[in-house]
Design a protein that fits this description.
120 residues; 4-stranded antiparallel beta sheet; 1 helix; methylation; transmembrane helix; cell membrane; Type II secretion system protein I
Length: 120
């Protein structure tokens, strides 16, 4: 009589290794996407703080902004941002549209925040 050996064949082991490799690859890709998304969220959040700070400062001075563009710089969470305030007229001369464009330190746009300001 032949004795049966117990265990896995080479094909079964290779299939199991392929399954584990695919699962690990998908997990690493998902972890990388999460890290990228967290970095982007921090970049946009701190850029938004810069824009909100500039628009709030403009409101607190209670001056009606002149039409045109004004550059500004901001630092939040150890990052430097370049900003540009764009003031444009509206159909009602008592109001102006103010946009704060924020770019990262490499000049890539991060976000634009806009508001309407009235004459006080």
């Amino acid at each position: 009589m032949r004795s049966r050996q117990h265990g896995f064949t080479l094909i079964e082991v290779l299939v199991a290794l392929v399954i584990v490799a695919i699962a690990l690859g998908a997990g690493i890709k998902a972890a990388g996407a999460l890290a990228t998304n967290a970095e982007r969220l921090a970049l946009v959040s701190s850029g938004q703080w810069c824009a909100e700070n500039m628009l709030t400062e403009l409101r607190l001075t209670r001056q009606f902004p002149d039409i045109g563009e004004t550059p500004f710089a901001c630092e939040q969470l150890g990052r430097s941002y370049a900003g540009k305030l764009k003031v444009s007229p509206t159909p009602n001369p008592q109001f102006r549209r103010v946009e704060a464009d924020i770019a990262d330190d490499q000049g890539r746009p991060v976000l634009t925040l806009s508001t309407i300001m009235g004459r006080t």
